[in-house]
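Here is one chain, start to finish.
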Amino acid sequence: MKGKILSVTVAIMAWFGAVFFVNAYQIECPQKINVKEEVENMPDGWEVSDDINSLTVSFSSMIVYYDNPSRMGALKPAKGTVDGKKHELIWEVNHYTEVEPYYVVCSYNVRRIELIKKIDLSMKSCWADYSKNEQGKKGTLTCSTSEAKNLH
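Its structure:
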């Protein structure tokens, strides 16, 4: 009897784990990235100072875009709930065409540097969580197959 209860418990835990994996996933913006500056078409008689050759920049913020960010389709976040939990920054990423992807953009301070990543087409809502640790600001975008509710 104990073995049967244990088997059922393990099966239920595996099912919940699979449901969570399918229903949500996270995209973490790298906290720091190394950047190397380069001057193209150096004017005659000029040279680049060695002390600005390499730079580490820190994560600043993130935003969600409809389609490629170069098309400037930034979405405005809202407050609301997803799966019964309240969030301050929610974006709806319901795909009407199943063709055009949504993207998350991670922005970095000092320079205008942005890293972009596609959001899985099966997701319907995403929310941002910001935190700090010893390395600085951290940003995580969590996405779910559940729709956002009570948006305002």
